[in-house]
Amino acid sequence: MSDRGDRRDRHRDRSSDDIPQRRAARTAKLASLPLGVAGRATVGFGRRMTGRSAEAVTADLQAKTAEQLFAVLGELKGGAMKLGQALSVFEAALPEESAAPYREALTKLQEAAPPMPAATVRRVLDEQFGTSWPERFAEFNEIPAAAASIGQVHRAVWADGREVAVKLQYPGAGPALMADLTQLSRMGWLFSRLSPGLDVKPLLAEIKERVLEELDYSLEADAQRQFAAAFADDPLIAIPRVVASSPKAIVSEWMDGRQMSSIISSGTQPERDEAGTLLSLLHLSAPARAGLLHADPHPGNFRMLPDGRLGVVDFGAVARLPGGIPAPLGRLSRLTIDGDTEGVLALMRKLGFVRPGIKVTGREILDYLGPAADPLREPTFTFSRDWMRAQAARIGDPRREEAQVGRQLNLPPSYMLIHRVTLGSIGVLCQLGATVPYRPMAEKWQPGFAEAAES
Predict the structure, then answer these.
(1) Cα separation, 362 vs 367, whole angstroms
(2) How far apart are CA 237 and CA 224, in angstroms?
(3) Where are the domains of the chain?
(4) DSSP string of 319-340?
(5) Which of 67, 108, 301, 305 would give a disulfide with 314, using CB separation of 3.0 to 4.6 Å?
(6) Looking at residue 15, what DSSP letter applies?
(7) How confident is the model at residue 394 (pLDDT cuts 50, 70, 90)?
(8) How far apart are CA 34 and CA 46, in angstroms?
(9) How many helices (H) and strands (E) does the chain have?
(10) Taking residues 160-168, what's their average pLDDT?
(11) Helix intervals (H) in 77-166
(12) Residue 276 pLDDT > 50, yes or no?
């Protein structure tokens, strides 16, 4: 590294090393998504006129759209890739004929993105840990081990011999993130094609509320320390400890393991069931144990360790729940599976899910909520893509009565993040096709659920 400083100076002002920040350039790239879809649709119409079957043309167009989706969102990183990751956990809800060509592209978004140049990596380390940062490491691999929406991870060896992961934020991530989300909010029609029945605008609005926290790695490091303390020496869930941190860099213990996406694609049924059970345990128990909910449940953030534990990484998105999941939500779940029409309606009105003046019956609400509560009805439940698709079709088809009831209901802002994370977690369980003892875990960890049964 003797010429590191000279090379750093030569590259210090190169904006091409950073996330593309100029609004016009990023807008043009994002605009290529809907334009590309429209252009391919026109070409596809012409191919059908020349005799190719509609099925063959559609499959070809979907595959090419998937390739463009990854190329554009992955290159831009920032909010574009953040949305792609958020959408990827809902892939299980897509009809199979739509899901197949997008599955590979969306999975790539969970774990890969074009990396920062080595010169930019060194510049970020200089800024975050000082120019003597090499003295803190015995080894540092400048080739990233993973890259995601707002940062990338490098494998290194700390001075004391510990293997560590060094997470660095892309320069310019903040402005790029906000500009992307603003632009993407105008493209709801495009993403509705990728995820029918999913209203992307509320998802984008909720993501925008969280991005400022995610951009401050000091907050993320604090959340990771809180998780690590709560799960220290846990036999089932492993959280890497933080070694050092700064506003745009985190050094934490390295964690080897099999990626959750690998289990989704090729795991045995016992492996799927174990991964799904541990993911459910994390989701249901963390608020009570750590006062936090891991709020980014895409498969790239989880891996199965050689010792059988679930390894968890990336704590940039968390919900702070010092009292655990609110007990009224547990009571509502229990009243739903017990079929208590009057109790459900009264509690929904009290919590603000049914606003004043809205005319809806308890029976209509139970018909809407009931099937979604299936995982809580029996000691075990098998999550599947078919079940997820049935739920999406049931509440997403405007011709169905359940969908009309859903439009009358309100999701209070205080519950929005919990709702999104729960849906995302269930989406991963459905991708796994896992059989999980969901109800016993809810009875143990969800405040209000067991109590409602006893009262």
Answers:
(1) 9
(2) 13
(3) 4-111+174-197, 118-171+211-253, 327-454
(4) EE-TT-S-HHHHHHHHHHHTT-
(5) 301
(6) G
(7) confident
(8) 19
(9) 20, 14
(10) 97
(11) 78-88, 96-111, 118-129
(12) yes
Please tell me the distance from the alpha carbon of residue 312 to that of residue 319, in angstroms, as a whole number.
16
Answer whether 30's CB lies under 8 Å from 187's CB.
yes
Nearest Cα neighbor of 431 from 369, 378, 386 is 386
In the numeric block, the tokens 């209070």 are attached to 412
**Superfamily of domain 118-171+211-253 in the CATH hierarchy:** Phosphorylase Kinase; domain 1 (3.30.200.20)
Which conformational region is residue 14 in: left (phi greater than 0), alpha (psi within -120 to 50 degrees), or beta? beta
Tens digit of each residue's pLDDT (9 = 90 or more) over 194-222: 444 445 566 666 667 777 778 899 999 99
Report the C-alpha gap between 333 and 344 in whole angstroms: 9
H/E element, 367: helix 362-369
* Tokens coding 284: 């249901």
| Alpha-carbon gap, residue 62 to 101, rounded angstroms | 6
269 pLDDT higher than 80: yes
Task: Please tell me the distance from the alpha carbon of residue 233 to that of residue 69, in angstroms, as a whole number.
Answer: 41
Structural contact between residues 112 and 74, judged by C-beta atoms closer than 8 angstroms: yes
The number of C-alpha atoms within 13 Å of 401 and in the hemisphere containing its C-beta is: 9
Amino acid 66: pLDDT: 52
Residue 194 confidence (pLDDT): 46
pLDDT value, residue 345: 95
With tokens 């043009």, the residue in question is: 28
Tell me how far apart the alpha carbons of residues 199 and 191 are, in angstroms, rounded to a whole number: 9
- What is the average pLDDT score of the chain? 78
**Which tokens hold the place of 256?**
């080897």
Predicted pLDDT of residue 78: 52
Can you name the residues that pair with 155 across neighbouring β-strands?
165
Beta bridge partners of 158: 137
> Model confidence over 20-32: pLDDT tens digits?
444 455 556 555 5
Lookup result for tokens 């700390």: 158
Burial category of 150 from C-beta neighbours within 10 Å (exposed 0-12, middle 13-18, buried 19 and up) = buried
As a dihedral over the C-alpha atoms of residue 374, residue 376, residue 377, residue 379, rounded to 10 degrees, the angle is 120
Q: Are 127 and 119 in contact (CB under 8 A)?
A: no
